[in-house]
């Protein structure tokens, strides 16, 4: 089974469990859980996690699959909350109505909360078979989700009068990418520290690329509202460095990511995966869009 199939199978099992597996459960909330997770986007975070696990030997694939599903559930939860009126007030996500538009704000709030709890439940169930690795995975995911350095902290920076751009990006976007590389290593029985830099660099690259796409693309191309950084006056790489400067930073960061990959049995395959993700990340915009943004 390929990485993509493993991710989807683990997510389907988690959502089915969360919906009650046929037991009585609130129907709207159960439907909203699936709406928030399927169909998915690029699944880049769980893909990185499983790629690192494979590079390190992947001797406990069921644990790695659980970690991948948990990480993606946290990401999906953050998207549900991000789209709500109190934050981005976005109507579209992945080309379809955001959860609060499809099911209402109360259900959207509960959907995000339920997905977060579900993520830790998935890991806890897997930890019964691998308690030492499982505990490490739970701690990494918790640190990457909450305060002071997780995605909650990243969202919190947007309410501060003065924003540290590096700290903001490290928390809002980088935290889950760092979690991906660290959790992949732990799931395969390796220590996570050597894998921190790779995740941090991929996370920075992803955020810069996301800032570029937001500035250069339209809603139809993105599958979600465009120009949100400008509309909400959020700190972003394009405002900080300009379009050409942001593109240069993106390329340099991705080169550094590849160079930071630790020596491991699957190093060559992992390098190939990062290069493939780099090509996917790099925005390609019409010349007219580039001229408008410069």
Keywords, separated by commas or semicolons:
Farnesyl Diphosphate Synthase; mainly alpha; 294 residues; two-stranded antiparallel ribbon; disordered C terminus
Describe the global form: globular
The topology string of helices and strands comes to HHHHEEHHHHHHHHHHH
CATH-assigned homologous superfamily: Farnesyl Diphosphate Synthase
Question: Which range does the strand content fall in?
Answer: under 5%
Query: How much helical structure, as a percent, in the residues?
Result: over 70%
What would a concise description of this structure say?
Helix 2 (27-37) packs across helix 6, helix 8 (151-157) runs antiparallel to helix 9 (165-187) and helix 9 (165-187) crosses helix 10 (196-216). It is built from 15 helices and two strands. The longest helix is centred in the first third of the chain and has 23 residues, at 61-83.
């Amino acid at each position: 089974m390929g990485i993509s199939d493993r991710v989807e199978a683990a997510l389907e099992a988690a959502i089915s469990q969360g919906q009650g597996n046929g037991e009585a459960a609130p129907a709207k909330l159960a439907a909203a859980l699936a709406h928030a997770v399927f169909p998915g986007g690029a699944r880049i975070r769980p893909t990185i996690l499983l790629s690192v696990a494979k590079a390190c030997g992947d001797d406990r694939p069921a644990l790695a699959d659980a970690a991948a599903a948990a990480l993606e559930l946290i990401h999906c939860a953050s998207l549900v909350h991000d789209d709500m009126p109190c934050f981005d007030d976005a109507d579209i996500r992945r080309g379809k109505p955001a959860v609060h538009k499809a099911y209402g704000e109360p259900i959207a709030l509960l959907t995000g909360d339920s997905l977060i709890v579900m993520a830790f439940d998935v890991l806890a169930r897997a930890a019964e078979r691998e308690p030492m690795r499982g505990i490490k995975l739970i701690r990494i995911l918790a640190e990457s989700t909450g305060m002071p350095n997780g995605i909650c902290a990243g969202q919190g920076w947007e309410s501060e009068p003065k924003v540290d751009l590096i700290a903001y990006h490290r928390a809002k976007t980088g935290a889950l990418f760092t979690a991906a590389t660290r959790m992949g290593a732990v799931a395969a029985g390796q220590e996570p520290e050597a894998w921190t830099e790779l995740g941090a660099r991929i996370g920075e690259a992803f955020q810069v690329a996301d800032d570029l796409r937001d500035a250069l693309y339209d809603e139809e191309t993105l599958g979600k509202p465009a120009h949100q950084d400008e509309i909400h006056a959020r700190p972003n790489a394009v405002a900080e460095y300009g379009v050409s400067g942001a593109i240069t930073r993106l390329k340099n960061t991705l080169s550094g990511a590849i160079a930071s990959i630790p020596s491991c049995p699957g190093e060559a395959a992992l390098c190939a995966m990062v290069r493939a993700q780099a090509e996917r990340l790099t925005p390609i915009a019409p010349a007219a869009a580039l001229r408008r943004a410069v």
